[in-house]
Design a protein that fits this description.
Residues about 1-20 and about 335-350 have low confidence and may be disordered. By secondary structure, the chain is mainly beta. Helices cover about 10% and strands about 20% of the residues. The protein has one domain (about 5-310). About 50% of the residues are buried. A six-stranded mixed β-sheet has the order 9-10-14-7-1-17, with no helix packed on it. A five-stranded antiparallel β-sheet has the order 2-3-4-16-8, with no helix packed on it. Strands 6-5-15 form a three-stranded antiparallel β-sheet, with no helix packed on it.
Length: about 350
């Protein structure tokens, strides 16, 4: 991939021609050990998450999330969904202590997204980033109460296609890989999570939070996934998260030649276990209106109300868990001295 500047220029060119989908920033809402999708009602959940989106977020979330939220940290003011990922950590090779790696603010992009605080970038694409293909492949959006996960902390080897890492060097995102970078990244580590695009059309969730979906994603970047199978025939928007983790404060604390990779996820997990959670919460038919728009990119041709990020940043939720997560620590949140999850909650779930 070219430099970030070049990438933005390419996006501008696409928008001037034919582009499809939504792209917008969300600031961090909260960072806590809560997971209403996989561990509903658990306070705390097993491991730490970085969460963005609507202020209805809490330990138990059922039904129409949008009807209970009053604000959102996302630029799209009608999106009260919640999006969350495991938090990245640095483990000091000298003494084994841990420190959170903070998400870098979403860079100013198109449409006035300046001012985001941490957080991530969200995509909803209809086909790919160059066309929508709506005549051949209509897209149906999610109903209230819908949720899904992608990836698994128990995964070994390589993560599923669409879950990836890039080492940002001098504004260049570098090669897309399935492992934490093994060199120091002077611009941070860039992570991507592509969710499955095929739904069975019936279930809002499933016991493993994935079986009601079918993951046809078989390549990286924003390529259209293959045809949905008969078991999961409903094509839904292809949801994607992008995050830049600011690893630069730790570059002086490790030596790639002798220390190996010092980064890990908050469940004491390696790169293969990268995962993400999604809980739908758009108001009314706002998302469907955008997905029905042809040759539109970024804001659905104005079909969705936007808000300034300064207003989005005012949206908060309370600290339900009340544990110290800042500064250096001997153990990860939720881990005992044996580096295993506390009895409350199960660390090895999304």
């Amino acid at each position: 991939m070219k430099s970030l500047t070049t990438s933005l220029k390419l996006i501008a060119v696409f928008i001037a021609s034919t582009q499809a989908g939504l792209r917008f920033p969300c600031s961090t809402l909260t960072t806590q050990r809560l997971d209403p999708a996989v561990q509903p009602g658990s306070i705390p959940s097993a491991h730490l998450h970085m969460i963005v989106g609507g202020n209805a977020f809490n330990s138990t979330m059922e039904g129409d999330v949008a009807s209970r939220a009053t604000c959102t940290t996302c630029q799209m003011a009608e999106d009260f969904s919640n999006y969350w990922v495991a938090h990245m950590y640095f483990r000091d090779p000298k003494n084994g202590s841990y420190h959170r790696v903070m998400p870098a603010p979403v860079q100013p992009l198109l449409g006035g997204s300046n001012g985001a605080q941490g957080g991530l970038t969200i995509y909803y694409t209809q086909f790919d980033l160059s066309k929508d293909n709506l005549k051949q492949q209509p897209v149906k959006t999610f109903p209230p109460g819908f949720r899904m996960t992608v990836g698994s902390p128990t995964q070994t080897g390589k993560p599923h296609a669409g879950l990836s890492y890039q080492c940002i060097q001098g504004g260049n995102r570098g090669t897309l890989v399935s492992q934490f970078p093994t060199t120091k990244c002077n611009g941070g580590i860039f992570t991507t999570h592509h969710f499955p695009p095929c739904w069975n059309g019936k279930d809002l969730d499933s016991p493993d939070h994935q079986s009601h979906m079918y993951n046809t994603v078989n390549s990286e970047y924003f390529n259209n996934a293959p045809k949905c199978p008969d078991s999961h025939p409903v094509r839904v928007p292809q949801v994607t998260f992008e995050i830049t983790w600011d690893t630069t404060p730790f570059n002086s604390l490790w030596d790639p030649a002798k220390d190996g990779n010092p980064f890990l996820w908050s469940f004491e997990g390696n790169a293969a276990g990268t995962h993400a959670d999604y809980m739908f919460g758009w108001k009314g038919d706002a998302l469907q209106r955008a997905m029905d728009k042809s040759e539109c990119f970024y804001d659905g041709c104005g079909s969705i109300k936007k808000q300034a990020m300064a207003d989005a940043n005012k949206c908060t939720v309370k600290d339900f868990v009340g544990e110290k997560i800042d500064g250096w620590a001997k153990y990860l949140p939720g881990m005992t001295t044996e580096h295993r999850p506390m009895k409350r909650g199960r660390a090895f779930e999304a």
